[in-house]
Amino acid sequence: MFELLATDGAARRGRLTTVHGVVETPVFMPCGTYGTVKAMTPKTLEEVGTQILLGNTFHLLLRPGDAVIRDLGGLHGFMHWSHPILTDSGGFQVWSLGDLREISEDGVRFRSPVDGDRVELTPERSMQVQQNLGADILMVLDECTSFPATYEAAEASMQLSLRWAGRCKEAHNGSGMLFGIVQGGMYDELRKLSLAGLEALDFDGYAIGGLSVGESKSAMDTVLRGLLPNMPVERPRYLMGVGTPQDLVRGIELGVDMFDCVLPTRNARNGYLFTSTGTLKIRNAQHRNSDEPVDAQCDCYTCANFSRGYLHHLDHCGEMLGPILMTQHNLHYYHALVARLRGSIETGTFRTLIETLQYDWTSQNEPV
């Protein structure tokens, strides 16, 4: 169930209630692709403010297998996470296989990147896997439209995704919420046709797929500005695979409720840290002797206890504690940013807040 609690312009403050708990929106979801968020324990995820995780159908189907996870208590019991979980259907991962996949009306066939076995993923199989995982929110299987794509190719891809969405709806056994995924490439008309087709099927929420696949920021912004005002007010809106802190601020400004992205965790493992003054690259030599925290305005465990010099040392030595501490910081930063934005919508100060935030990291030439 989704409740819209407040708005400030197009920005929305909501509450999503699932079997495993309540999610306050807008929300950022860390990616736990293989049943774990890299470098984080479930307890630490709770401590940094994580409300809901994302798991992945494609990867968990390949190993250890959905039946194994089902028999070991579902994904919640398997990874010892008692809060909500959303599972991606696997469509994006199949798209990333490129020419190694075969797409037909039935579904997708591909060689497993794990052991080379032939694997078939149909809408019905995707639903079965996600139900075996015990997800709180399930995603329909879609074909992620490539970029660039002609109008004709984008339309064919979108229509296939709509037909698959209908089959997912029929195969869904009612466990967990089921979200449809809007496709249509960079074409506003196709996006609206996709949304209308999904609304006719009446999903519990609606995701925006097929973005962050190589298009420019301005192109993504154009798609969102054209689509979001037409999306159902009473259902949650999920922007898939996006993005930077700037993307989150802009998405919330336009009316997005949910986000996921590997960026904060992947960047942390590569020494890139998000701060209130921009992106910090811990590998730069200038941090070697620094006794400053990563961000003086941050109250996370890492910033409260460790210096830039220490993190530089851990990263230089390849010590596993480095990615752990830096991942804690980046996820805390993301959650704290979204929490501030959430609070500003409640108080009607959203516009004032985003005008004071330095969130355009892409305008900086090099991390410091």
Overview of this structure, please?
The protein is of the alpha/beta class. It folds into 2 domains: 27-261, Alpha-Beta Barrel (TIM Barrel); 268-363, no CATH class. 42% of the residues lie in helices and 19% in strands. The chain contains 15 helices and 16 strands. The protein has helices at 42-48, 57-62, 66-71, 74-79, 91-96, 123-133, 151-171, 188-201, 217-227, 245-254, 263-269, 301-305, 308-317, 321-347, 350-356, and strands spanning 2-8, 11-18, 21-25, 27-29, 53-56, 85-88, 101-103, 108-111, 118-121, 137-139, 177-182, 205-208, 237-239, 258-260, 272-275, 278-281. The chain has an 8-stranded parallel β-sheet. A 3-stranded antiparallel β-sheet has the order 1-2-3. Strand 11 (177-182), helix 8 and strand 12 (205-208) form a beta-alpha-beta unit. Helix 14 packs across helix 15 (350-356). The protein is globular. The relative contact order is 0.13. Residues 360-365 have low confidence and may be disordered.
